[in-house]
Structures are given as C-alpha cells and as structure tokens.
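2024-03-11 09:14:02 INFO queue: dequeued item Sensor of ECF-type sigma factor, len=148
2024-03-11 09:14:02 INFO validating residues
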Amino acid sequence: MKNLIIALFILLPGLAFAQGPRMDDEKMEAYKVTWLTTKLDLSADEAKTFWPIYNDFTREQNALRKERMQKMISFRKIKEIDDLTDVQIQALIVNDFDFKQRELNIEKKYYNKFKSNLPIKIVGKFYRAQEAFKKELLNRYRGGQPKQ
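2024-03-11 09:14:37 INFO prediction written
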C-alpha cells in the first residue's frame, strides 16, 4: 500500500493529460490563444503588452514540463517501487517537490510581470480565464459539450 501511494504521488501529475483524445500542441495553444483573446477582450495597447509576457510565460512553463517529463521517463521504466532503494525513492519525491516549486516560481515571476504592466483587473481576468480553459478542456475530453 505504501508503495502504491508513493507511485501515485509521483506519477499522477504526469498522467493528467495522458487520458482521452489529444490535440497536438500547436492546436491546443491556438485554441487557448483564441479562448484568452475572447475572455480578456484586450485593447490594442493591452494586447501589445500582454502577449509578449504571455508567450515568455508559456515558453518557460513548457521548458519546465519538458524537463520534468524527461526525468520521469527513467522512472516509468522501473516496474516496482520495491526495485528502488530508499534513497532513490526519496530523490524522486524531492525532485517532484523541486519541479513544483520551480513551477510556482515561474507563476509568481509572471504574475509580477503581468501586474506591473497591466491593470490588475486584466490580470484577474487572465487567471480566471486560464482556470475556465482547464475546465473546458476537461469537459471536452470527457465527451461533454463546450461551455461558453
């Protein structure tokens, strides 16, 4: 049971997008940009400020996710937690904490960039739109109809 809990703790974040039909990354990003454009309703000046920051934010997030997935590949080849030493298991868990912290650091960095360059209401709409987008995707993958 302990091994199962450890395995789930380490693997669940990576499995979230492994279920259901997948859009390729370009289509997914295009869909998200369209979604954000609609939800944020930015003025021309706001758009000139927002999109470069958003693009940098997305690039950093994607690079971190790619690095995380590369590190997880070797772990997935191991069939049983019992085949690992305690030190290896601890290293995997601490490594996962490190990635989560780095992800949070990116979020905070870009939150500060957004709020320094845009009205806080736009920043709030952005974060709300991101959450709504995630719900929309989950609904689509579960076979539901898109909600507007």
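2024-03-11 09:14:37 INFO annotate: The radius of gyration is 18 Å.
2024-03-11 09:14:38 INFO item closed
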